[in-house]
Amino acid sequence: MPRFVSRTPAITDVAKLAGVSVPTVSRVLTGSVPVSTERRERVLRAIQELGYRPNGAARALIKGHQSVIAVLAGATTRYGYALTIQGIEEAARLAGYIVMITVIEAEDPDTVTKTIDLALANPVAGVIVLKFDPAGIATVRAMPSGVPVVAVAGSRGSGVPHVVLDDTTAAMTATDYLLQLGHRTVHHIAVPLAGRRSGRSAGWRKALERAGAEIPPLMEAGWDPHRAYEIGLTLADRDDVTAVLCGNDELAIGLLRALHEKGRRVPDEISVVGFDGHPLGALWSPALTTVQQDFVDVGRRAFREVVAMIGNEQPPQNSSGTPHLVIRESSGPPPEAKRR
């Protein structure tokens, strides 16, 4: 039975009852610095006897396991990031785990190291890294050994287990679709590259190479739909542009806005295909053709894999989802095909 105290027990009470210092109690709770077995057991007995509960860490230690999953991500509000985190959190909650989110603000080594240290200062059982951008890539590479880590990525990877969206295959499918409609080539407005090339850009290029089509210069818009809008104002003045694959649906909407303002008809003059399946794409006029991605399912699968690692099981190195093309109103044959 917990010892009666007239107030909520504090960490100093635990230290006094265990006969150790407050920093020693903190080390036991966080696991940040090794503590002798004898002292650790005294601290845990004092925690249990006093009913000390600062957070989930004490409960996890008493039960003999940690119940926090750390998610490290370069962003949390972008559509794909947010839905992936949603899938992780939903699966974790059902399994009795808590999710802690830490944002990786930049890809430089100092920032990445500080972010990892901040996350691992907590009693985490495992880590899921969203490897959607350079910051995520750098974080996966910098993770210390001995920590269960799973990466969520747009393409296959080595090292830690990867749950993959298979952006390369998806982009190839979208590009092939436009070529089969009769477009001589497909232009590409890209999201930031993950490494040397994103899976989406790689798939676009592979499809064009396989078809023997001209490969136009890649146009980088970052994550900003306004940048895609600016690019669209330029593309609208070119007669040689009949099809554009965008790195996500937000960029596609920026492009569609620019084409509309310039009086270019979609898809009669220019076809536009997006990526991710953002719900607003279906409400745009014309409704956006897109590659549908199940980010929530990817998050759930990543959680299952990190839990398997926590249980000393080894998940597959790469497990892929199956994106599919949703054909709507924004894509069709090129103008010359309609004149034949």
List the helices and strands and how they pair.
Elements: H1 11-18, H2 22-30, H3 37-50, H4 56-63, E1 68-73, H5 79-94, E2 98-103, H6 109-120, E3 124-131, H7 134-142, E4 149-153, E5 162-164, H8 167-180, E6 187-190, H9 199-211, E7 219-220, H10 225-235, E8 243-246, H11 249-261, E9 271-276, E10 289-292, H12 295-310, E11 318-320, E12 324-326, H13 335-339
Parallel strand pairs: 1-2, 1-3, 3-4, 4-5, 5-11, 6-7, 6-8, 8-9, 9-10
Antiparallel strand pairs: 10-12
SS strand fraction: 15-25%
Major sheet attributes: 6 strands, parallel
Secondary-structure element order, as H and E? HHHHEHEHEHEEHEHEHEHEEHEEH
Domain count: the total is 3
CATH class wording of the largest domain: Alpha Beta
CATH architecture of the largest domain: 3-Layer(aba) Sandwich
For the biggest β-sheet, the strand order reads: 2-1-3-4-5-11
Rounded mean pLDDT score: 88
Which structural class do you get from the secondary structure elements? alpha/beta
Helix content: 40-55%
Tally the beta strands.
12
Protein name: LacI family transcriptional regulator
GO molecular function, one term: DNA-binding transcription factor activity
Keywords: DNA-binding, Transcription, Transcription regulation
Pfam families: LacI, Peripla_BP_3
Short description:
The chain is of the alpha/beta class and 340 residues long. The chain is built from 13 helices and twelve strands. A six-stranded parallel sheet has the order 2-1-3-4-5-11, sandwiched between helices. A six-stranded mixed sheet has the order 7-6-8-9-10-12, with helices on both faces.
